Amino acid sequence: MAQDPVLLFKKGLSFYICCDICLIWRNIVISKPILFLSKAGKLCVPAMNVNDSVTKQKFDNLYCCRESILDGLKRTTDVMFGGKQVVVCGYGEVGKGCTAALKAMGSIVYVTEIDPICSLQACMDGFRVVKLNEVIRQVDIIITCTGNKNVVTRDQLDRMKNGSIVCNMGHSNTEIDVASLRTPELTWERVRSQVDHVIWPDGKRVILLAEGRLLNLSCSTVPTFVLSITATTQALALIELYNAPEGRYKQDVYLLPKKMDEYVASLHLPTFDAHLTELSDEQAKYLGLNKNGPFKPNYYRYTFPC
């Protein structure tokens, strides 16, 4: 897809769901090429960006990663989290989930960020925001959650202490510069599935998980309840695009309608025996809302405490 996204979209070979009439996706990996095509005017069909919908980003990214980060690390390394110094690179929804889980287990957690708003959130949540180079020699675990590339470089890997763990929760296999570790002076030792010891000439070992690929997809289970939320969002997005009157959606990228996000959430509330409060006619009129929703404007930013 990265080589010829137009051709792949025309053939219906999208990473998630693509057909002759519409396209939906739920992963940041595919977001960039689709948005690139849209800006260039080369998108062949209407596209629904499920990845940035509330019911995907605020639940799959946060709550799923909050559980799978611990599961993945335990399955692969049997590490004890209490007292460990951990740096989480990125404080988006994935980073928030990871930091919350590790903090609850007694780890000392640092955060790296480029965004001042996310940095301020991390500070207010009780995490120290640092540059990676400031703590690289002392941390026990590095977790990347940025969606970027070369977040952890060879120079930084060279300075990590013996027995450190490096893994990725963010974006494909680009965040850790794994290619730089495949050199003659370094020895790779496979100790178990998805776990490699990279050994330096002085005997130092760095534990690399899943060769830099996504830890939660490679080394842990993913909660089926959260997957249900995401899959429902995808299905409704596809139905909306398929059934929409001609002309409603042009060859462009759209976000899921707020009403649909709320419907996905409502479908999953019975699992918790949750009962929604209903607005009276007077209350609905006072707030300027329809009694059946949507209950928030499109610009509303849902915040989820960790």
From TrEMBL:
Return the Pfam families for the record.
Answer: AdoHcyase, AdoHcyase_NAD
Q: Supply the SUPFAM superfamilies for this chain.
A: Formate/glycerate dehydrogenase catalytic domain-like, NAD(P)-binding Rossmann-fold domains
Cofactor(s) the protein requires to work: NAD(+)
Keywords per UniProt: NAD, One-carbon metabolism
Q: In its keyword annotation, does this UniProt entry include Ligase?
A: no
Q: Which PANTHER family match?
A: ADENOSYLHOMOCYSTEINASE (PTHR23420), S-ADENOSYLHOMOCYSTEINE HYDROLASE-LIKE PROTEIN 1 (PTHR23420:SF3)
Please identify the protein, giving its name as recorded: S-adenosyl-L-homocysteine hydrolase NAD binding domain-containing protein
